[in-house]
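Do me a favour: review this protein, sequence plus structure tokens, and tell me how the chain folds. Record follows.
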Amino acid sequence: MSKNASILLVDDDKDDQQIITDIIRELNIPNEVIIFNNGNEAYEYLVTSSDQPFLILCDINMPVMGGIELRKNITDNKALRRKSIPFIFLTTTASPKAVKEAYEMSVQGFFEKRTQYNDFKKVIQLVYEYWQECNHPNN
């Protein structure tokens, strides 16, 4: 995993896409952000690309394929599983059921989207800095 590789943002909400990319730029995070509107688009990219993304930030509720299903598909795909791409849920839906289901799939994080911009910025910064420091099997 290259720590300068792309960040995949999987979210169907255009406003959230813009806020998250604005925060990433404000934090001077140099990674390219590639946006997908649903899990199916992201999965197709992952299985057809040789890209080794740095991180996946994913919403849960999306049309076509939601985040939980995307995570299951990645886990079920041996080649993608070997890439060990950090998968973080970043969502407005933080029901106990969704959190439990996410962690049963070995997700690497589950965060609620914050309503206050600066609080949201702190979450993105925390996630990014953690994975910048973390050892990874594909380094």
Remarks:
- The longest helix spans residues 117-133.
- The mean pLDDT is 91.
